[in-house]
Design brief:
Blueprint (H helix, E strand, L loop, with lengths): L1 E12 L2 H12 L4 E2 L6 E3 L8 E6 L6 E8 L2 H10 L3 E6 L2 E5 L5 E6 L4 H7 L1 E3 L1
Parallel strand pairs: 1-4, 5-8
Antiparallel strand pairs: 1-5, 1-9, 2-3, 3-4, 6-7, 7-8
């Protein structure tokens, strides 16, 4: 048994400064640097309960992707692959998948407050 939930919406772009300025203005928030993670610019408060951010891409085209956080990376990755996702890569504790329809989804370790995660997560057998 494991749990997972949608946790993060990311605007991936090779032009993070311009994208962060646009999205902050468009969504009525302030773009904030993320300490220790220079590839991210946070857009706090946009979607309550979810992390929303701009992520710098070193290569590739601009896109939007989501992160699913879980308390069991292997089990959640296998569950999504059984639904038709294809694993593209692994980086640290992140599993990048391409899901049916072509979107990118990352499976990441639980990073939310435990109580928040447990309240929002789905339990999978």
């Amino acid at each position: 048994m494991h749990r997972s939930r949608l946790s993060t919406i990311l605007f991936d772009t090779p032009e993070p400064d311009a994208a962060a300025a646009f999205w902050a203005s468009a969504l009525g928030t302030e773009a904030r640097s993320v300490e220790g993670e220079p590839q991210f610019t946070s857009l706090p408060g946009v979607l309550p309960g979810l992390v929303t951010a701009v992520q710098r891409l070193d290569e590739g085209e601009a896109r939007v992707h989501v992160d699913i956080e879980t308390d069991d990376l292997d089990a959640e990755t296998e569950r999504l692959k059984a639904l038709g996702a294809v694993e593209l890569s692994r980086w640290l504790d992140c599993r990048t998948l391409r899901v049916p329809g072509g979107h990118v989804v990352c499976v990441i370790p639980m990073h939310s407050d435990r109580a928040e995660f447990e309240a929002a997560a789905t339990v999978w057998e």
